[in-house]
Write a structure and sequence with these properties.
By secondary structure, the chain is an alpha/beta fold. It has helices at about 20-25, 30-35, 65-75, 90-100, 120-130, 145-155, 175-180, 205-215, 275-280, 280-290, 300-310, 315-335, 365-380, 400-420, and strands spanning about 50, 115, 135-140, 160-165, 170, 185-190, 220-225, 250-255, 265-270, 340, 350-355, 380-385, 395. It contains 14 helices and 13 strands. Bound molecules: pyridoxal-5'-phosphate.
């Protein structure tokens, strides 16, 4: 043997993988969806119906706007954006984001309040890492978006969960929030419009969240990646409106509203008219963290002023009305499926949470078992609720092509009838 007979297994290598990372990755949406995809029956001739993840970009009816595409081409061809970008992002793009968000705010943002990130995901990573101190904890919604839990785990930030209440339109249980918080609590996360619940909060509820945060001396992290994707009774209200009550860090991106999650352009924005975050060194920490991480590609940043400034209103109106119609199809269709309960009609984002009545099924153990068998037997992918914190629920995305959605609900119905005890 070339290595002199040395047995690799007995050699004491000086490295090993960080097991916290595999643990964290297992519980992400991606991790669970890959597991379900591996269960598909390859000999099923039918198409796979993806009701698991919120990325409608694959469907022709959800193509992004012409002006967004042109903006990228123009940026690329200008040859002005081939270099490294500054840590915080290029100034014209930060100005454009400040202007875009300020349209809905009482206090105008300055470009200095804006940090460009690699999608909303890096904005989450940044703020959580910045807040992770020796004993710090963060309050996360349950059900929620498991990327927060995964990132918190990887940076040793303690997580405490408060419930969203289905009977109250998935509003946060703010009484519980007050009892959960202590002197080491740094922030509360609010996702609005909601993933996974499809809720849109009222002005009043958001104000109560801000006031609770003020009382507790914590900041609000407002995940508004689904900004303006609201189609029910409540209009979308940005949390930044309450930035004078308590500091609000708004996270967003072009991924969902423009249906281009692959472009990886997001932002972290400070709404803090009293300068509290600056006084506590948070702004310097954000810059410091971004200094040691990757930037969004410069030519994508170069396109931001035109993407945000030139996309016509009818593009948004059309997308929102398609999603609204899909939400109705999904809600009405699933309401008729035996063994599945829809406590509230989705009014925003691209998702709805529905509850399984496990006792009605003969041979289904729990939500994971349900989703695995559904993938195997019907080639339909749905996310088990446990992934987002609610066992024996399902998160269904309706932002897919209408005929595929109808087909998916039909198969779901057939599956539930076949497995119900009565059958
Ligand atoms: C999709 C999503 C993100 C991540 O957004 P990207 O811009 O794709 O990184 C963050 N938060 C929530 C709630 C999401 O649904």
């Amino acid at each position: 043997m070339e290595n002199g007979g040395m047995n690799n297994e007995n050699k004491c290598w000086g490295f090993k993988g960080n097991s916290e990372l595999t643990k964290a990755a297992d519980v992400t949406i991606r991790g669970v969806l890959y597991m379900l995809l591996s269960k598909l029956n390859q000999s099923d001739p039918r198409n796979v119906i993806p009701l698991g993840h919120g990325d409608p970009s694959a469907f022709p009816c959800f193509r992004t706007s012409q002006s967004a595409q042109d903006a990228i081409v123009d940026s690329l061809c200008s040859a002005k954006f081939n270099g490294y970008s500054p840590t915080v992002g290029i100034l014209p793009a930060r100005m454009a984001v400040a202007e875009y968000l300020s349209q809905d705010l009482p206090n105008k943002l300055s470009p200095d309040d804006v940090f460009l990130t690699v999608g909303c995901a890096q904005a989450i990573q940044t703020i959580l890492t910045v807040l992770a101190g020796s004993k710090a904890n963060i309050l996360l919604p349950r059900p929620g978006y498991p990327y927060y839990e995964a990132v918190a785990q990887s940076c040793n930030l303690e997580v405490r969960h408060f419930d969203l209440l289905p009977e109250n339109g998935w509003e946060a249980d703010l009484e519980a929030v007050e009892t959960l918080a202590d002197e080491n609590t740094a922030a509360i996360v609010v996702i609005n419009p909601g993933n996974p619940c499809g809720n849109v909060y009222t002005y009043l509820h958001l104000q109560k969240v801000a006031e609770t945060a003020k009382k507790l001396g914590i900041l609000v992290i407002a995940d508004e990646v689904y900004d303006h994707l609201a189609f029910g009774k409540n209009p979308f209200v940005p949390m930044g409106v309450f930035g004078s009550i308590t500091p609000v860090v708004t996270l967003g991106s072009i991924s969902k509203r423009w249906i281009v999650p692959g472009w990886r352009l997001g932002w972290l924005v400070i709404n803090d008219s009293n300068g509290i975050l600056k006084g506590h060194g948070i702004i310097d920490c954000i810059t410091g963290y971004l200094n040691i991480s990757c930037d969004p590609p410069t030519f994508i940043q170069g396109a931001v002023p035109d993407i945000l400034g030139k996309t016509k209103e009818d593009f948004f109106t059309n997308i929102v009305s398609m999603i609204k119609e899909a939400a109705n199809t999904c809600y009405d269709g699933i309401s008729d499926v035996p063994g599945i309960i829809c406590p509230s009609k989705p009014e925003g984002s691209m998702f709805v949470m529905v509850k399984l009545d496990i006792s009605l099924f003969g041979d289904i153990e729990d939500d994971v078992d349900f989703c695995v068998k559904l993938a195997q037997e019907e080639s339909v992918i749905i996310l088990p609720g446990i992934t987002v914190g609610l066992k024996n629920w399902l998160r269904v995305t309706f932002a897919i092509e209408p005929s595929a959605l109808k087909e998916g609900i039909k198969r779901l119905n057939a599956f539930c009838e076949r497995h119900s005890k009565k059958a």
